[in-house]
Design goal:
The protein contains 18 helices and no strands. It has 386 residues and is an all-alpha fold. Helix 3 runs antiparallel to helix 15, helix 7 runs antiparallel to helix 11 and helix 10 packs antiparallel against helix 17. The chain is globular. The two termini are 29 Å apart.
């Protein structure tokens, strides 16, 4: 029994590290948005369009990979996805123009899309403590997200944009480990897959789509602020490294919040925590966008912590409500919602051109209130199963 328990937590720890690697590659562009915008002479709306296109392939396709994963060997799909993202995201420094940059990002994003639905199930399937396991898994992703804004500018400042290729090495090593660790995993029976996909639109699935609404609005919050922080920072006189440190503060605080939220949601009412997390994030992000100085940065860090407490619950609640569609639900909450939010970067960028990026982000901040309102339609899975 003790050996089995150690094996479960060893695998979960490994999946958290793999998630850190995947999210690191997914965030490679973020600290370089202003760099590439100036390099290729793009407007704010133009660079936002690049981010939106990448979001479609890297996020909105996750439900399709989730459907595929529900009838395939999840470990193999996750390993291949991690390897693909590691290679192509590390090559963006070689792009000679915006079209080539977008192509490399799209290929890398497809790897991210393949990794996430499968890995989310691999992380939570061996244990009954889904919220806690999901919190640890997402905390790994938070580490990757927080490291990218620190490491990527350092590599660029040391080796130049063309030297980013060195970042692919750890991801390829982890992909090999993941493939070897899951080789014995049996494929899921395929006959259930078509039914599972249709079941997501059947009567009684309203709570899932309310959760999706929450995920979409929360994704808009974090996507807009993460994507445009280097642009906002440039307007405030920050250099690339300073913008990276401020973003890392937000993401590190989100990591801590995710750990706490995963534990709290396992023991208490996750629906209520997710609603409060969304609502309280809004004024903190507004303050960061509206003000300058240390209080603004402190509010940004606090927003990261508060936002992070709800992050693992958006996925684990969906998996508890529809356990037969676990990979598909993971794809909806992590993929389709995130990709749809990336598409919304285009109007956010357009608003930034006309009214300034700070004003645009102040408006986006209040999406957190809408995310909280969606939770009114979501019952507690524990009460629903009682």
């Amino acid at each position: 029994m003790a050996n089995a328990r150690r094996s479960v937590w060893w695998m979960l720890g490994g999946m958290a590290v793999c998630h850190a690697s995947s999210d690191f590659y997914a965030t490679t562009l973020t600290p370089l948005v202003e760099t590439f915008r100036q390099e290729f002479g793009l407007t704010k709306a133009g660079i936002a369009t690049v981010g939106a296109v990448v979001g479609v392939f890297g996020s909105m396709l996750q439900p399709l990979f989730g459907i595929w994963s529900d009838g395939a060997r999840r470990g193999t799909m996750a390993a291949v996805g991690l390897a693909v993202s590691a290679v192509f995201m590390s090559l963006i420094g070689l792009a000679p123009n915006a079209v080539a940059l977008t192509a490399l990002l799209v290929l890398g994003a497809l790897g991210v899309a393949a990794f996430h639905p499968s890995s989310a199930v691999l992380a939570t399937a061996p244990t009954s403590k889904r919220s806690l396991a999901m919190g640890l898994f997402l905390a790994g992703g938070g580490v990757g997200l927080a490291l990218a804004p620190l490491v990527v500018p350092l590599v660029v400042d040391t080796l130049g944009l063309r030297g980013l290729w060195v970042l692919c090495v750890p991801g390829l090593g982890l992909a090999v480990w993941l493939f070897a660790s899951t080789r014995s995993e049996p494929a899921v029976v395929r006959e259930r897959r078509p039914f599972v996909a249709r079941a997501m639109f059947a009567r009684g699935t309203g709570p899932i789509w309310a959760l999706f609404g929450t995920a979409l609005l929360r994704s808009l919050l974090i996507t807009a602020f993460i994507f445009f922080i280097s642009v906002l920072g440039a307007q405030r006189g920050w250099d690339r490294a300073t913008s990276g440190r401020v973003l890392s503060l937000f993401l590190a605080c989100s990591f801590v919040g995710g750990m706490l939220g995963g534990w709290w949601g396992q023991e208490h009412d996750g629906v209520r925590l997710l609603a409060w997390s969304s609502a309280l994030t809004a004024p903190l992000l507004w303050w960061f966008a509206a003000e300058t100085g240390w209080t603004s940065i402190a509010a940004f860090g606090a927003a990261g912590f508060v936002f992070g407490t709800g992050t693992p619950l958006n996925i684990s609640l969906g998996q508890e409500l529809r356990p037969e569609s676990a990979s598909l639900v993971s794809g909806l909450m992590m993929g389709l919602a995130w990709g749809s939010a990336n598409l919304l970067l285009i109007p956010v960028g357009a608003m930034g051109e006309h009214m300034g990026i700070a004003w645009a982000l102040q408006l986006v901040a209040w999406a957190g209130v809408g995310a909280a309102a969606c939770m009114v339609c979501v019952p507690s899975p524990r009460r629903a199963g009682a």
